[in-house]
Amino acid sequence: MAVKVDIKELLEAGLHFGHKTSRWHPKMAPYIHSKRQDSHIIDLVKTVDGLENALPVITKTIAGGKKVLFVGTKKQAKDIVRTAAQEVDQPFVTERWVGGTLTNSKTVGAQIKHMQQLENKMASGDLEKRYNKLEVQRYAEEISELNKKYGGIKALEGKPGLVFVTDILSDANAVREAKKLGVPVVAVVDTNADPSDIDYIIPGNDDAIKGIGLILDYVKKAVVEGQASIKKEAK
Questions:
Q1: Rounded distance between C-alpha atoms, residue 35 and residue 19, angstroms
Q2: CA 32 to chain CA centroid, nearest Å
Q3: Packing angle between helix 105-124 and helix 133-150, nearest 10 degrees?
Q4: Whole-structure pTM over 0.90, yes or no?
Q5: Using one digit for the tens of pLDDT, what is the confidence trace for 106-123?
Q6: pLDDT at residue 26 greater than cutoff 70
Q7: 107 and 131 in contact (C-beta within 8 Å)?
Q8: Of 71, 94, 156, 231, which residue has the fewest beta carbons closer than 10 angstroms?
């Protein structure tokens, strides 16, 4: 069963509020309903269409055994993006996007392997046996720093099946790397952004935390539906 989208919820979450008309991107014209004072109003019918196009793709990606990489490094969004990804056991990047996260898998993979080795040594007490307290503390700090960069993708094997981005201007590098690898991108796109590189556009206010949270709820439901399909086939 496909995930149902409620336009009233989108309205209540403030997803229709675009940026000032002076900051608009002309390619977002098809998704703009009107102007209110000096700001654009996003056409929520198009937002519903965008979600209804994207959500089945997310479900299909998960059902096919692939992962959806959640990306949201903007300060006000990163906590809810990380929580949403963790709730449905998907990889995420919510701190700074490290160049080559997707396109330089060899180097990133080596960093993740190093981090996991340090974590195992720390957990087993091996580091405490071999080093003094100051040195152990430095290793703990290194582990923490590596986790900041790579903790959300340490269980990601190979490239994701799809990338979901909450702000394509803040995370332009994520979009760029996904496109370079041919990985489809689903994204929330506000009126000030160029949607050209986005495969599945969800027009909406990318600054409204309530709105981003609502879209993440829909995305999570689509992921859960795909996971349920895998379990059903496994029986």
A1: 10
A2: 24
A3: 140
A4: yes
A5: 999 999 999 999 999 999
A6: yes
A7: no
A8: 231
